[in-house]
Amino acid sequence: MGRTRGLVVVALVIAAVASLVTVAAAQDRVKTKEIVVGLGAEPRTMLGVMIVDWTTNNMLEHIYDRLLDRDSKTFKPKPMLATEWKIVNDTTWEFKLRRGVKFHNGEPFTAASVKATIDFALDPATKSHFASAGYWGLVKEVVVVDDYTVRFVTKQPWPNLADSAASTNSLIMPAKALKELGPAKLAEKPIGTGPFKFVEWKRDERLVLERNPDYWQGPADASRVTFRFIPEFSTRMAALLSGEIDVMKDVPPHAVEAIEKSGRATLRTTVSSRINYLALVNLKPGPMQDLRVRKAMNHAVDVDELIKQVLKGRASRMCGPLAPANVDYSPVECYKYDPAQAQALFKEAGLDPKTLSLTLDTPSGRYPLDKDISLAIAAQLQRLGIKTNVVVNEWGTHLDKIKNRNTGDMFFLGWGPALYGQNTMQPLFLADQTYSSYGNNKAIDDKIARAQTLLDPKARAAAYADLQKTVHDEAPWVFLWQQHDLYGVTQAIEWTPRADEKVWMYDAKIVAK
Amino acid sequence: MKKWVGLILTLAALVVAAAAPWLVTHDPLTADFVASLKPPGTPGHPLGTDQLGRDLLARVLYGARLAVFIGVCTVVVTAVAGGLLGLLAGSVERWPSAVVMRIADVQLSFPFILLALTINAIVGLGLRNIILSLSAAGWVVYTRVVRAEVLAVKQRDFVQAAAALGVGRLRLLFRHVLPNVAPSIIVVASLQFSQFIVAEAAISFLGFGVQPPTPAWGSMLSESRDFLYVAWWLAAFPGAALALTALGVNLLGDWLRDTLDPKLRV
């Protein structure tokens, strides 16, 4: 007995000392102006324009700059590495570049680097995600006019080129270093024009960056930014509350109170442009081939109940494929929760819900409460007698299953930042795209092709409105919601989250309180 | 002491497993979102509810049903298959013995849980497949124990006498040898039972094995991690149920070994 008590005392002492040490470390970080960000996954490359993945590109844009930034309120493109941009003719865009910008290795930033970066993305040997027609694949050629003027010649009119430039699709790499060192060397020690310089990347553990004192917008307030990779939410939360990390993304709604009560961190929220949806897969055989079944699903799932009860109100309902945060959004009528109508539609399609068995694939921990929402949808379908098997996948497996068309009848996915119509409609509703679940509908194919080439804003708005109506009527998804992004941030850091998910520590100020 | 604690806990698990549908009024799969994450002691939900408002008591009890079912099935399959192979290896000594025992040795060089996981990854998800993979990973112990016992019993006088009287080989094996080996099989089975239950929970925890929404202790524990900060009961009750069941069966197995061990009897 005495021995057990002794052990307990020792354990308590160790715990007390450990918590003192981490709190002390957190205070030291305020003095030395360091920020530690806890993320769920590590980057998949250190090169720009390689991978369509928020986690990777979010870390990379601390090292590399985009051609254009976005206004933090209106989300309209604004100058960054490029200062002016205009349409020259139907298939040509011109960018004027900023003078006096230097890469971390001293190499000056010029039009050659813009050309080299896009050429690198388009080179088949690179195997970049951005080489496809939804991204830089639409570019025929990048022409260097002079050192500070560059032209993008496109294969067809591409009104959204500026939108693409104003995203992490355009993280510019140094032309000379890319040529002399080669991509493999550059991937080991990335060189950009951004506010932070690369220090080290310890696999599965951390990415460390330090302040670039010569940054063209002025040096950052933070002297050092460390990204720690902590896959488990509960571990990330414990790290935040104990002072090991200062910023975490995707606090689940049920943990909000625990953060607020901790006294160490506060909750900062924003309505995100990222949308969540339940795909009703028609690219493989099954009941979802039938439009009546897809419509019945939209009447059978009670989206408002999911938002209210599972997400505690932390989401904004979406009725069609685009949300109000999207510039090409136009309103459509919501499908109403109506079990009787769902029953009738199932019957019309020759299916008895009581004997229907469906499979739903879900990731776990990638989106707010993703797995729990999937289980809740299964429970709602159960009310009609539909048996739903929920398959919980590890994130990589989930994406592979979607790419290989290997999922069940439905899958849960998020998509964002979804700021303009092209980058949602084209990748998700054409049969040949990586992440699509729906396609082979001639009417939709044609409308997508048309909408994304219209340069006239009015005509484009009309085309996208018509397209959204058609997609809504085809019910390729159960339309769910716009996420609310919930961040837990320590009180010493002044930083406001943005709807476009740009988590950029250049914007953060560290204030001793 | 050991005997009674073991007996009570094991019996409790068996009774609960058999009678779960009559013990609780809630369906373990029916969600009631309004009543989500209610703490233990809430009227109508003695152990509280989970993140979807499902009754935790119902889920823990139905989890017992699943755990016991998987444990019993796996033990029966491994005992019969492993026992027969052991009998074969012990009675026919030449090459069949060598082949079976070398396979057993190879299999023993892999950790049990790793092997079970690997087999599960190959055969796929689901209740039948988890029983299959646990069995495929767990038969070796029986084979080794039974073979050793058979080799010893074969030398005993009464077996030699029966053989001398002209008793046939199969009859000799099943009438005279097997009854003397049976106590060892029972002891091994009782010890294996708890190992299988824990292994099943581990595999379900990792997301293989039994799939949600079916209530399994392992997957309930796994789901509870996201809610540890706000709902301790989601982890505590399935965890306690698993620990107590494993403890009870282990104590019972210990006691059985003490009682049935031929060496102690002599």
Describe the structure.
The complex is a heterodimer of chains A (513) and B (266). Chain A is an alpha+beta fold. In chain A, 33% of the residues lie in helices and 23% in strands. In chain A, helix 9 packs antiparallel against helix 11 and helix 14 runs antiparallel to helix 15. The radius of gyration of chain A is 24 Å and the shape is globular. The two termini of chain A are 45 Å apart. The mean pLDDT of chain A is 91. Chain B is mostly helical. Chain B is 74% helix and 0% strand. Chain B is built from eleven helices and no strands. In chain B, helix 1 packs across helix 2, helix 2 packs parallel to helix 5 and helix 3 runs antiparallel to helix 6. The radius of gyration of chain B is 22 Å and the shape is elongated. The model of chain B has no long low-confidence stretch (mean pLDDT 87). Chains A and B meet through helix 7, helix 10, helix 12 and strand 15 of A and loops of B.
Shape of chain B: elongated
Give the biggest beta sheet of chain B.
none
Overall mean pLDDT score of chain B? 87
Task: Give the amount of beta strand of chain A, in percent.
Answer: 15-25%
Major sheet characteristics of chain A: 11 strands, mixed
Query: Taking Cα atoms only, what radius of gyration of chain B do you get, to the nearest Å?
Result: 22 Å
Task: Quickly count the helices of chain A.
Answer: 16
Count of helical regions of chain B = 11
Output the structural class of chain A: alpha+beta
State the largest interface: A-B, 30 and 23 residues
| Helical content of chain B (DSSP H or I, runs of 4+) | over 70%
Oligomer: heterodimer
Rounded radius of gyration of chain A (Å): 24 Å
Beta-strand segment tally of chain A: 19
Rounded average pLDDT of chain A:
91
Contiguous runs where pLDDT drops below 50 for at least 5 residues of chain B: none
